[in-house]
Amino acid sequence: MLAAMLYSWYASMITGPELVLTHALGYQYLSGFMIGMGVGGVVGASTLGVAMFSLVAPEGYLMEFTAIVPVVNCISNLGTISVYLKHANWALCWRMWPWILGGIVIGTGLLPLLPETHLRRLTSVIYACVLAQRIYEKYNEFKAGKEDDNATPEAAKQSIATYYQQTWVMASVAVLCGVITVVTNNSGPIFNIYLLACGLDMDQFVASRSVLMAGKNVAKVVARITAGGLSWPVFLHGVQVGCMSFIGIQVAKPIKRRISTEFYMYFTWCVLACTAIKMWN
To answer: In the chain, what are the domain boundaries?
Structure first.
């Protein structure tokens, strides 16, 4: 009893970046598990896991709590790559990586310039725009199918995939994801929307996303350490939380086999909508 009281007192005295070492630990480890399930192919789990770090952060400590998210993501992405490496679309990954790194550089420069409230609302607007764009495209696809009896869903999907793999579209999405991943650690929904629109199947999607995310998060961790926003104790704490993702990846395997890309897309739309509303408020 005395030890528990002393620990509670000690935890209440911790402020600054080290607050993340003691605050809402149960939710943090649950987030690590959910991120593992998400990168392993369970729709929405990773987004909710990442968002949980923002939701449990005390007011004024958002940046301190989101600082460990790249570390957790690195562990989970590397674990997923080890399982699905042969399915990755390496050509697409190599094309996107330089642009993502450019976005990370821009986001790192913007981070100290924007207040926390502005960061949340900027992300909310971006999510809403991405969602509106995909719903509009889906509407046009449905409308074309009604007007042209010879149009097939496969032809429509191929047309959309060709559009999204254009260099200027790919570069725009990659830079945007790089910026968002630095300022809010929640670029996952946009990556999901883009990769699915490129016509990847579930194994290709899971593998390619993990390859992109691993490179992106390694760069983010280096950027955070260089900028002084990630101390050694917080880094080690992120590794510990990230180890929970290995359990989530294994749990996700049988679930992923039963999920279609179409269902994943619609569920991601719902996650985008909910997150956009939550981040605005």
So the answer is: 23-280
